[in-house]
Amino acid sequence: MTAFQLEVASDGLATLTFDAPDRKVNIFDRAALEELDALTVDLAQKGGEISVLVLVSGKRQRGFIAGADVDLIAAVSDPAEAAAGSREGQRIFAAWERLPFPTVAAIEGTCVGGGTEIALASTYRVVSDADSVKVGLPEVKLGILPGWGGCTRLPRLLSLPDALDMILTGRNLRAKQTLRKGFADAMLPASGFLGHVRDFARAHAGKKRSLWDRHGGFDVKELLMERNPLGRKLVFDQARKTVMDQTGGNYPAPLAALEVVRTGLEDGPAAGFAAESRAIGDLAVSGVCKNLIHVFQLSEGAKKLPGLPGGEAREVRSAAVLGAGAMGGGIAQLLAHKADLPVVMKDIRTEGLADGMQHVSALFRKLVEKRRLREPEAERQLQLVHPTLRYDAFHRVDLVIEAVVEKLPVKQAVFEEVSAQVPPGTVLATNTSSLPIDEIGDRVPEPEKVVGMHFFNPVHMMPLVEVVLGERTGAEAANTIYQLSRALGKTPIFVKDSPGFLVNRLLTFYSVEAQWLLAEGYRIEDVDRAMKGWGMPMGPLALGDEVGLDVAVEVAKVLSEAYPDRLPLPDGLEKLIDKGLLGKKSGRGLYEWEARKRQGPNKEVYALVGVHPSVDEPDPRYLQERMVLPMINEAARCLEEEVVASAGELDLAMIFGTGFPPFRGGPCRWADRQGLGWAIETLGRLARAVGERYTPSDALKRTADAGGFYARFGDLGEGTALGVAEKKTKKKAKSKKKEAVKA
What's the rounded Cα separation, in Å, for the pair 250 and 405? Predict the structure, then answer.
């Protein structure tokens, strides 16, 4: 089967439809590129027959073109092969650009990567006015750069700052932005789009133009800042500073892209194309690229995994949220915005409801300000959230999500109360971050409907949801939350009910070790700087201030009680809490805060916790090993205990739930790459020098003997994500069988 179909009308209007066989979206795999190459040679001979050609997608509901085949990039190991692949794409798109008639890229839906690069090589670009349109060059997110001409062409079409923003961050443009910034020549109505495109094409038949022939039309800012060497240098210097501030230099692709763009502008297109290919050769075989592609493949694979066997997801037509705090308000807004659900948001205080609605309104306002939502639609969705002090409307909800204070007796009372107000079968979800699911639902008549739905803060930004399975949680309830989480744009991961679940359990081992370093006389800023330099979004002590030291200490206590042999707590932080130093929310904590922005370390902390900062210029690598390796040790235990089903899911959860550096691939992949033998040896050395809590676990040793985390516990293979659930279901079935035999 062919990917491209050409039709030529009697008036010379040609339509080339890209419809990749056996794929949900169009991508440029090897076969599609070879076909386009041969087709372009043939089209070059049709100058007398064709007056204008329109490139359209045959998968209009799924978008234009979703880029290159990521599997090809993942498989390449030879820099020369990678560079050759870049040159081949450049050659094919250059031939497309030289066709003897104008070409029009007709963009609906997603147009990214190679799709954007062939659009840039087209004479004209038109977009639909639908909200689904997004145009981008996301290659840096995979550790490479646009290598089929994107780095060289885009800065000649857009202003240099706009082009650099797209290339260096991977940010997408929406339909109106493509027109405003100069990417698109026209934005056409989504209704009857192809008819409008053909009208545009006929109006531009025979009007060939070249991106490289632009000699005028520059505004004053462009002339001052981009079209002279000094101004251009300022733009590049600022862009480099921004990249370093955002990445810490841990991601080589944006820095390489910056130099490629500079080369293309200063030395000409040929030099720019050559620089693209050289950079692709270096980047595509790098460890960072392979790790980022690994994370991308995990993320895409997770979207395809089924839910638990034994029960279909319940249709959710309306929902309720209990608790109108920051989490409750965030959850309510997400349900209204992403799932278009009517939501009842209940609290016990009028002031709480007012604060919750203010939070919901602020989130919608930000979407409008960022042009991600139109004001009438934002207002309509805001009206879907109904604040209340009563249970009157709960008789018609299909789902309740509880987000009240993190105290077991309170949650038990709330669940008992709400279970009497909802119809039979209603799913009761708790947003608890550490409390036992079965105990929370201990007083409800249908405990099989109780399930954990653990969001991470801030709700609207963090992509992970832990779907927590208690021993009594039924498949229907679990699958309802699993599927709803996807509808909300989140990545759900099944985890077993256990202290701290998965993410908070591992994160606590990391953060408690930071507290020990503080107690040993290391400076707050040195501890945090070490982990920020390692790639974490912020240091562990700064994170404690962000979430609230009272919350962090309470979670640490729960886990220390569960794992007393390996999670002893240092003295000190409770003294800060007694003094009201809770972090961001109180204005002071381990750091000083001003207008909710973190300033320098709070110098009073050392005296309050009874230590003197005595370690000067510590080795960052030593600090990193102290904090990261306890996570690795505990990760092996979590996998062996079947808290999570696979190494791939654990890595995805830690990246999406904590910001674990994606360029390292996740804790399990990082440890595998470092070598578990090294990890065990280093933990043993730390156990002797620092404390027995570092003793390498038997689970880690067995994992090393099995060849590593991924060799033993697997990736996201077929059914892997259901490992926990399948064994849980079998256990239930076996238990029921025993009961039947006894009866």
Answer: 38
**Is the pLDDT reported for residue 194 higher than 50?**
yes
Kind and range of the H or E element at 320?
A: strand 319-322
Mean pLDDT of 12-30: 95
Q: How far apart are CA 247 and CA 533, in angstroms?
A: 9
Yes or no: say if 74 and 297 are a contact pair by the CB < 8 Å rule.
yes
The amino acid occupying position 262 is R
Angstrom distances, CA of residue 284 to CA of 112, 140, 316: 18, 11, 43
Q: What integer is the mean pLDDT of 133-147? A: 97
- CA torsion angle for 217, 222, 223, 229 (degrees, to 10)? -130
For residue 458, is the peptide bond before it cis, meaning its omega torsion is within 30 degrees of 0? Answer: yes
> What is the SS3 string spanning 172-208?
CECHHHHHHHCCCCEEECCCCHHHHHHHHHHHCCCCC
Nearest residue to 26 via CA among 149, 98, 111: 111
d(CA 90, CA 121): 10
Q: Which of 294, 337, 359, 454 is catalytic?
A: 454
- pLDDT value of residue 48: 87
Residue 733 pLDDT: 46
Closest Cα partner for 403 from 505, 473, 331?
331
The helix/strand/coil state of 267 is helix
454 carries an active-site annotation: yes
Helices within 63-147 (DSSP H only): 70-75, 79-97, 114-120
Q: What is the pLDDT of residues 11-20, one digit of tens each?
A: 999 999 999 9
Check: CB of residue 403 under 8 Å from CB of residue 327: yes
